[in-house]
Amino acid sequence: MRPILACAGFALLLTVISGCSSDDDSAAAPTAVPPTSTPAPATSTAVPATPTQTAAPSATATHTAGPPTETATPAATPTATVDPAILAADGEAAFFDTLYGTRNREEEAIALLGAAIAGNPSDGRSHFLLGMMHLFRAGQALTDYTNPSAFVLEEVARAQVALDAAVPLSGADPRVPGFRGAATFLNAVVNDDDELRALGLQQLRDAIVLYPDFNNFSFLGAVAPAVPADDPLFLEALELVRLAIASGCGPLNEPEICGNEGKAPHNVQGAFLMFGDMYAKAGNATQALVYYRFGLQLPGKDTWPFRAAMEERIATVQDRVARWSDEDPSNDPPFAGKGSEACAICHYK
């Protein structure tokens, strides 16, 4: 690797990878408030009219997602006498067991968080985690944007309801609007809804203004996999990567957001896999290899569950570029974070 390319890769590490660490407990203060942003005030107690609609999945839905492969723990049946704060804490524990790939407790997380919300509708944290659990399930099961399953459509819709509720209840946390924007955009894509797509893009852009070092990843992760390489939105995503090089966010000064010390134990590796895929999709095999290889030179590579996926990309980068560049979209290779890689490439331990 030429030194100039390695330096460019490291500079990018200091910036855009921040967003993959999706939920550390302390967020940096927003740098600005976008003039077009319209979230409710931090003191708002508004909740969706029917919050319990997001508490449990459809009885007929079948989750066919990738790892963790263990059978999900049966959903808990909390009683009305249980303190909502206890339900919220138990639901959060089930959420992170699932997110980390420790044990599949997604059904239990949904039941507990839904019960916590029913007991305390102003619990923004539980709304947020419930929305993210539904978004995780949708991402893990999604294999085709143009022909999504009924399960994916339902999970995306439920994710958006919960995250829409979470935004006005989450105070000054600038990360939540980014995830809400990602849910809105994904909902628009799988339902082919142009009006909703415009709303999702506006929410994503507003969120970047609020917290660039984190929410740029919400834009990249939602938009780059879903649009063609010649789409202006894909070029906008590439421009975000370029602009991020000037940022000073890095593992030394922001180890939780821009390193592996937060709740994304393989934040660095997952981010570089995505950056490599972005440049491969753009037709630039040389730059794609820079990011793929650099991700395997950094701490955390030896315990990363998806190391083989990065190595496979390195070995087949020319083929991936060719398949993305031809006129047949049906043979496009999977983009980072799709299917079993969704959330997992950064969060699985």
Number of helices: 14
Report the average pLDDT across residues.
78
Q: State the CATH topology of the largest domain.
A: Serine Threonine Protein Phosphatase 5, Tetratricopeptide repeat
Low-confidence stretches: 1-73
Strand count: 0
Briefly note the structural class of the backbone. mainly alpha
Tell me the CATH architecture of the largest domain.
Alpha Horseshoe
Going by CATH, the homologous superfamily of the largest domain would be Tetratricopeptide repeat domain
- Indicate the percent of residues in helices: 40-55%
Radius of gyration equals: 19 Å
CATH class of the largest domain: Mainly Alpha
Strand content: under 5%
